[in-house]
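Design request, C-alpha cells follow.
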C-alpha cells in the first residue's frame, strides 16, 4: 500500500493591478510547495506553477512597469473566483499558506477562498530568525543567504508570480528547518519585530542600544511594527518575557 502524500505548506505570490482590493484585482498567481520529508526535514516538492488571471479591469501602466503583464496577456484568462480555491486549498494535504509579506496576499486570498488557512509570513519570520541580514526583501534574502539548491534562472524574472514564489519557498524551507510550523504561524500573527531602528537619530542601532526616552518615543509611532518592537524591548528591560525564538510553541511541529 502506497504511503499517503506528505503534508505541504503552499507558498504563493500574487501579481495584481494594485494594492487595494476590491478596487484592484489579481492578474497572476504563482505557487511552490514545501513538504515535510520522512527524515523530518522540509524540502521543496513538485514543480509549482502559475496561472494568469483576468482581473476584470484594465492594468495600470504603473503596475505593468513592475510585472510586465499586459491587458492583452490576460484577456482570455479565467477570472479569480474560477481559479483561486483549487490553488489555495489543495485539501487535505495543506497545513498552511505562506507568502513574503503575507498581509498583501491575504487581502485577495480571503478565508472563504482558503478555507480559513493559517498563514506564514516569511518577512516577519526572517526578522526573527535572521536579524543580521542587511535587508529583508525577498530578493535581498536570496542574495544574502544564497539558499542551497536554488536554481538561479528558475527564480527569474523577479516580480512575476512563480519565480517569486519559488524564491520564497527556499526561505520558508530553511525557516521550517530552524523553527516549528506553530512558531512561524505565531510570529506571523503578530506585527513585525524589527531588529534595528528604521529612522531618526538612532537609525541603524539595535533597539537594545537606544535610551529609554528614545524608546518611549516610538510607543506612539504610526507604524504598528515600530510600536510592537518598542513595546517588546521595553517589556524586556522591565523584566517581561521576551518575544522571540525561545517561545514554548517553537518546540511544537504543528
Amino acid at each position: 500500500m502506497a504511503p499517503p502524500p506528505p503534508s505541504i505548506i503552499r507558498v504563493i505570490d500574487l501579481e495584481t493591478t494594485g494594492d487595494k482590493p476590491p478596487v484592484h484585482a489579481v492578474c497572476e498567481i504563482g505557487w511552490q510547495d514545501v513538504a515535510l520529508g520522512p527524515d523530518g526535514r522540509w524540502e521543496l516538492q513538485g514543480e509549482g506553477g502559475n496561472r494568469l488571471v483576468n482581473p476584470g479591469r484594465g492594468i495600470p501602466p504603473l503596475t505593468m512597469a513592475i510585472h510586465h503583464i499586459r491587458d492583452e496577456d490576460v484577456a482570455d484568462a479565467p477570472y479569480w473566483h474560477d481559479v483561486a480555491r483549487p490553488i489555495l486549498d489543495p485539501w487535505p494535504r495543506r497545513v498552511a499558506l505562506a507568502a513574503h509579506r503575507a498581509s498583501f496576499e491575504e487581502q485577495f486570498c480571503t478565508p472563504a477562498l482558503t478555507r480559513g488557512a493559517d498563514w506564514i509570513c516569511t518577512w516577519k519570520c526572517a526578522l526573527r530568525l535572521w536579524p543580521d541580514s542587511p535587508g529583508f526583501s525577498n530578493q535581498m534574502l536570496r542574495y544574502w543567504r544564497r539558499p542551497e539548491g536554488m536554481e538561479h534562472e528558475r527564480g527569474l524574472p523577479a516580480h512575476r508570480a512563480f519565480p517569486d514564489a519559488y524564491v520564497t519557498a527556499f526561505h520558508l524551507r530553511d525557516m521550517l528547518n530552524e523553527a516549528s510550523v506553530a512558531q512561524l504561524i505565531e510570529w506571523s500573527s503578530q506585527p513585525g519585530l524589527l531588529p534595528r531602528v528604521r529612522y531618526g537619530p538612532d537609525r541603524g542601532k539595535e533597539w537594545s542600544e537606544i535610551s529609554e526616552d528614545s524608546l518611549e518615543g516610538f510607543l506612539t509611532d504610526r507604524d504598528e511594527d515600530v510600536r510592537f518592537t518598542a513595546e517588546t524591548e521595553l517589556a524586556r528591560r522591565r523584566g517581561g518575557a521576551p518575544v522571540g525564538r525561545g517561545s514554548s510553541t517553537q518546540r511544537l511541529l504543528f
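Comment from the thread starter after seeing the answer: thanks! The mean pLDDT is 92.
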